[in-house]
């Protein structure tokens, strides 16, 4: 085994670096999950989460990865054979679709090129064409972690409204929540799906559903089978600060601390920080003479950047060099982007010098891996960081 000194750079787009404050908070004695101290903890985190989702409606916490919260969103609101409208923005949208197929839903998938987000005009067109209002839900991945493309949720909401369609609106914010602007209530989202391991700065293991009154109403008649994921017993137990089963107590200690950190910094400042690091990263990529995968200026992700390699060069080779030489983990290309892109995560607990270290590692790795690239990417990023103070 190689002994490495210094800190590992975990710059995949999640799981992200867990701050020491959160790690210390998790490292505490587990308490009785049916006692008064726990109820206080649960009430505090449930209230804090509402502020992050920007909702006054309930948020449910599952001891599960994001995939569990995807399933919960579908099985609580839909019935076998229900038609759902989905958009192939990338790997995660495709996986959510596959799950919907397996649950027995009738998925209408709008194809995509993995370089663009969901086109609001296409949403409007599909919904207007649905004269019989058969589509029960529109499902969108806000930030496609596989491509670095962010769909414009407010515009998609406006498109649904223009079509005057009653479909539920289900949004995956697994790699956007607490990294970029998101408004569950204002954008009239019915179920927002999120996970702990990205903008929320926690280890993997918790996931969330924020639910609207309309979604709750739909859950009363939704016919898909559900037991563990059922919202009803959870909502009832949560009222008193409890869970219908043993909760992930120590993760909730971590969540409480992470929510305090986000509030200390201020959500607007958190979003500005992410946008600034993303812009600096894109400037570095362009200065290297490489291409950013996102093809629309309005849709650049603030939480990650997918970098396209010139034909004939393997992105996983760059990742291998970065790991071997610099102890830097970069995200791999997923699905049809395997080998063609690597992804730089710049989300969660992250600052200017962490970004500089990451970009230095990428610049050196590109050269060592023999990828034709120009020097000066790091300088371009530094220039941006200096000119746009926090
Ligand atoms: C946008 C998005 N959706 C869903 C998932 C699946 O979440 P998990 O791997 O936590 O189950 C991920 C994971 O990275 C994701 O980035």
What does this protein structure show overall?
The chain has 13 helices and 14 strands. With 390 residues, the chain is of the alpha/beta class. The strands form 4 sheets. The chain has a 7-stranded mixed β-sheet with strand order 2-10-9-8-5-3-4, with helices on both faces. Strands 11-12-14 form a 3-stranded antiparallel β-sheet. A hairpin with a 4-residue loop joins strand 6 (143-144) and strand 7. Helix 11 crosses helix 12. The longest helix has 21 residues, at 267-287. The chain starts with 8 loop residues before the first strand and ends with a helix. The chain binds pyridoxal-5'-phosphate. Pyridoxal-5'-phosphate binds at residues 14, 65-67, 92, 141, 145, 172, 174-175, 195, 204.
The number of strands is: 14
Helix-strand pattern: EHHEHEHEHEEEHEEEHHHHEEHEEHH
Whole-number average pLDDT? Answer: 98
Sheet-strand content, in percent, reads 5-15%
Q: Regions with pLDDT < 50 over 5+ consecutive residues?
A: none
Structural class: alpha/beta
End-to-end gap: 40 Å
State the major sheet: 7 strands, mixed
Helix content: 40-55%
């Amino acid at each position: 085994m190689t002994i490495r000194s210094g800190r590992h750079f975990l710059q995949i787009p999640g799981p992200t670096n867990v701050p020491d404050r959160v790690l210390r908070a998790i490292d505490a004695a587990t308490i009785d999950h049916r006692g008064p101290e726990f109820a206080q903890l649960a009430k505090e985190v449930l209230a804090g989460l509402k502020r992050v989702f920007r909702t006054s409606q309930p948020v449910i916490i599952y001891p599960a990865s994001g995939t569990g919260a995807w399933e919960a969103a579908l099985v609580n609101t839909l019935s076998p054979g229900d038609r759902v409208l989905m958009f192939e923005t990338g790997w995660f949208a495709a996986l959510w679709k596959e799950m919907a197929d397996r649950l027995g839903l009738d998925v209408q998938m709008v194809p995509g090129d993995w370089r663009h987000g969901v086109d609001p005009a296409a949403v409007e067109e599909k919904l207007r064409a649905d004269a019989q209002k058969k589509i029960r839900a529109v499902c969108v991945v806000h930030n496609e972690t596989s491509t670095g493309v962010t769909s414009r949720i407010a515009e998609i909401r406006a498109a649904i409204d223009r079509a005057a369609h009653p479909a539920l609106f289900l949004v995956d914010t697994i790699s956007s929540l607490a990294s970029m602007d998101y408004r569950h209530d204002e954008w009239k989202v019915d179920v927002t799906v999120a996970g702990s391991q990205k903008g929320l700065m926690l280890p993997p293991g918790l996931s969330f559903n924020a639910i609207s009154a309309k979604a709750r109403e739909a859950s009363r008649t939704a016919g898909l089978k559900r037991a563990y994921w059922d919202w009803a017993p959870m909502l009832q137990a949560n009222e008193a600060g409890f869970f219908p089963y043993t909760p992930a107590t120590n993760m909730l200690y971590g969540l409480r601390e992470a929510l305090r950190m986000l509030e200390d910094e201020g959500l607007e400042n958190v979003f500005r920080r992410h946008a600034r690091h993303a812009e600096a990263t894109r400037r570095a990529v362009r200065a290297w003479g490489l291409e950013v995968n996102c093809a629309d200026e309005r849709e650049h992700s603030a939480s990650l950047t997918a970098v396209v390699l010139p034909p004939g060069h393997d992105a996983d080779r760059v990742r291998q060099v970065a790991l071997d030489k610099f102890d830097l983990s970069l995200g791999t290309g997923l699905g049809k982007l395997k080998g063609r892109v690597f992804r730089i995560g710049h989300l969660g607990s992250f600052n200017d010098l962490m970004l500089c270290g990451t970009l230095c590692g990428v610049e050196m790795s590109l050269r060592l891996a023999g990828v034709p690239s120009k020097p000066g990417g790091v300088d371009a990023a530094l220039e941006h960081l200096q000119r746009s103070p926090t």
